[in-house]
Design a protein that fits this description.
Chain lengths: 507, 224
């Protein structure tokens, strides 16, 4: 028996009142935690993704839309830019690295991003954290894809599975038919580790593949792909709608194709070992594909001409140069003729009519300041709920003082000091607030966990729930301190309780 | 053991502001091992006398010495601690805490003294009052006689030098009353036991009686 057990017994004795006051604190803290975590994680998610890049070239339009589309796989593309912008960026000594993006297709609602292989190898989805392969390898040629972790988890696809990509970004309306590229099978060669960014919900493939998906004239059939490569391939039946047994086919690549920058044998091109999973993407007519990916990839490269992109993302050698280039592209009318001459020499200047230059971090900062205002209001509401809850604790304990006078007097008669009585009441308030705050923290993270799926779906923001940070610990401590403070009011009343008058005896 | 010297205690009537003396003791000495009844009609200061002795209140003047400690010179918190260590209190209305079991109520009696609230000691005194099989019963689950026995156990648990009982049998039937008095007297052997009562049956069980009205002492209680 100690003070804590007295406190807990007192709280248990008034279980309903205790539960209600704890619940009110829980509700308030859960709201604060949820707002705090969602705001913090959203900001972090946006900032971490944007800080890795200095400049974004996209078609003229909304700078924010271009940023959201390229970095967060949200919104739609603002338009098309010439592929020359990417070529210029690759050649420019001011540019450390450039990544091309060609988008607009999807698979089961997940966006397919056409880019270069070095995006997976060299880009940093989070500052200082490059992409890491969980399984398999990077795409190395057309018709190969790397899945973001979330896409792999949600679709259940494995390395070696073939998918058929849909033209457009969303699932078709009920009754409508999706435009599925059923003649362009794409094979999954790699699955990324979770990065905690929107990239987890994207599928990456090379530019040829995404161009091929847009090319209505592309046909990848046997009668079209005899390009004199001397391929000897064993056709395998690829019937969609059911699982295939393991098949084997061999390749006899005796050719040298300039457009193939790699040897097919070197990267484990062994489709024969794939287990083909059934696909639920409208391909249930059981039609047959006679192909091998090696040949199909060759056809894609032969038939497709890379002409356009949606965006080029650039990391500069000197980030300050990004502002200068952005100024030149976006406001190309300087009064100073010397500056104008310098501009004319700039490789990007030639594209000034077609592109805009965006500093992603600046766009995200602007976005966050807008979102921040709404978040501020939400946070104020949440704190208001906490304050009301603290008042409910005060009132609940204060109201019990009258009925508890006898108990307090008995404890005083047994030798309890006034300070001990004061402590008991303050502890009751603190315990209510501590339990409420801890439950609120848990409940808040449960809200975040539930909201995270929705946010990921709607905004591509990957939020990690149950990531308890220092500010949340501080929130708990502040709530307990507030509980102590609130508890002092009834505690003072208890402190002043006259033991003699309340012992229930005569004079 | 106990000496009250020139002790005066009264109260101010809140209605007319007049001061009314309740107790005016010139000199009262109570020796170690004394068992006495404090008799007198209601409202004559019997309970006030116990409150003074326990240090719950201080007199307006005079000294109260217990052993070699003048408790009127102690601060309130020192008196609280002194009370916890040296005084056992038995109330007419038991004053057990509702949410606590018999065992916990007895342990509560130890909490505010310097001793640890030992469970085994609480069980031992509850056994002494015959409640071994009621340790985990709450007051509402006990008869009034049993409740008063828990109250007695709580008063005894710290092995106090002085036991003060305020109308301990006031709410009990005759057989429970006799049992509680027997327990108190047995437990208080060698200690001071002062029992406030206006019941003649109870008074008759004590050899020494202090009439609070006339302050007439029986042998061993010296009021000057």
């Amino acid at each position: 028996m100690n003070l804590t057990s007295i406190v807990l017994k007192n709280l248990k004795k008034r279980l309903l009142s205790t539960t209600l006051t704890i619940s009110s604190i829980t509700l308030g803290i859960a709201m604060v935690v949820a707002v705090l975590v969602i705001q913090q994680e959203t900001e972090r998610s946006f900032n971490q993704t944007s800080v890795g890049y200095d400049l974004l070239f996209a078609a003229k339009g909304s700078q924010l839309q271009a940023t959201l589309n390229t970095l967060y796989h949200l919104e739609t593309s603002v338009g098309i830019i010439p592929i020359g912008v990417y070529e210029a960026a690759k050649r420019d000594p001011r540019v450390e690295i450039a990544f091309p993006f060609y988008v607009g297709d999807s698979y089961r609602g997940y966006r397919v991003v056409g880019t270069s292989a070095n995006f997976i190898e060299k880009a940093e989805p989070r500052r200082g954290q490059p992409f890491r392969m969980a399984e398999g390898r990077n795409f190395e040629r057309p018709l190969e894809a790397v899945f973001g972790s979330e896409v792999a988890r949600r679709t259940g696809h494995k390395i070696g599975d073939e998918i058929f990509i849909t033209h457009g970004l969303s699932e078709p309306a009920p009754g409508a038919e999706a435009h599925v590229h059923d003649d362009v099978p794409v094979i999954i060669v790699g699955i990324l580790e979770p990065s905690g960014t929107a990239n987890d919900r994207a599928i990456f493939t090379d530019l040829y593949t995404t161009h091929a998906l847009h090319d209505v004239h592309l046909h990848l059939h046997d009668d079209h792909h005899d390009h004199g490569h001397g391929h000897e391939h064993h056709a395998h039946e690829h019937s969609h709608g059911h699982e295939h047994d393991t098949q084997k086919h061999t390749h006899d690549h005796g050719h040298t194709d300039e457009q193939h920058s790699h040897d097919h044998h070197d990267h484990g091109h062994s489709h024969g070992h794939h287990e083909h999973h059934s696909h639920s993407h409208g391909q249930e007519n059981g039609h047959t594909h006679d192909h091998t990916h090696g040949q199909a990839a060759s056809q894609v490269i032969n038939q497709i001409e890379l002409k356009e992109l949606d965006a080029v993302l650039v990391r500069m050698v000197n980030p300050a140069a990004a502002i200068q280039i952005a100024g030149m592209i976006n406001f190309p009318t300087p009064d100073n003729p010397l500056l104008a001459r310098n501009m004319m020499r700039d490789p990007f200047f030639a594209y000034k009519e077609d592109i805009m230059a965006v500093v992603p971090a600046m766009q995200i900062r602007n976005l966050m300041s807008i979102v921040g205002n709404a978040e501020q209001v939400l946070r104020l509401v949440a704190w208001f709920v906490v304050i009301v809850a603290l008042f409910s604790v005060l009132i609940a304990i204060y109201n019990t003082m009258e009925e508890r006078k006898r108990d307090l007097a008995v404890m005083r008669a047994l030798g309890a000091k006034r300070g001990t009585i004061f402590s008991i009441i303050v502890m009751e308030s603190a315990v209510i607030c501590a339990i409420g705050a801890l439950a609120g923290l848990l409940f808040g993270h449960i809200i975040v966990a539930n909201a995270s799926a929705y946010l990921a779906e709607m905004a591509g923001i990957v939020i990690t729930a149950f990531n308890i940070e220092l500010n949340q610990i501080l929130l708990i401590l502040v709530t307990v301190l507030a509980g102590i403070l609130v508890g002092t009011i009834p505690a003072l009343k208890a402190y002043r309780t006259d033991a003699v008058q309340n012992l229930g005896s005569g004079k | 053991m106990i000496r009250m010297h020139h002790v005066k205690k009264g109260y101010t009537n809140p209605e007319n502001g007049s001061y009314q003396t309740i107790l005016n003791i010139d000199d009262l000495q109570i020796n170690e091992g004394t068992h006495a009844a404090i008799a007198g009609p209601s409202g004559t200061g019997k309970t006030t006398l116990l409150h003074l002795l326990s240090g719950l209140i201080n007199p307006e003047s005079g000294t109260i010495t217990i052993g070699d400690v003048d408790i009127t010179k102690l601060s309130e918190s020192q008196r609280d601690r002194f009370r916890a260590d040296n005084i056992g209190y038995v109330f007419q209305s038991f004053n057990l805490l509702d949410g606590f079991t018999a065992l916990e109520n007895v342990q509560l009696g130890m909490m505010f003294s310097g001793k640890a609230a030992s469970k085994s000691r609480a069980e031992e005194v509850l056994a002494q009052v015959g409640l071994t099989d009621r340790l985990h019963y709450k007051p509402s689950q006990l008869s009034v006689g049993q409740q008063q026995r828990v109250c007695v156990a709580r008063a005894l648990v710290n092995d106090p030098k002085i036991i003060l009982a305020d109308e301990p049998t006031g709410n009990l039937d005759p057989s429970s009353s006799a049992e509680v008095l027997r327990l108190l007297k047995n437990a208080a052997e060698g200690k001071v036991l002062l029992v406030v009562t206006h019941e003649s049956d109870v008074i008759s069980q004590f050899e020494r009686v202090l009439d609070i009205l006339t302050l007439t002492p029986s042998p061993d209680l010296a009021v000057k």
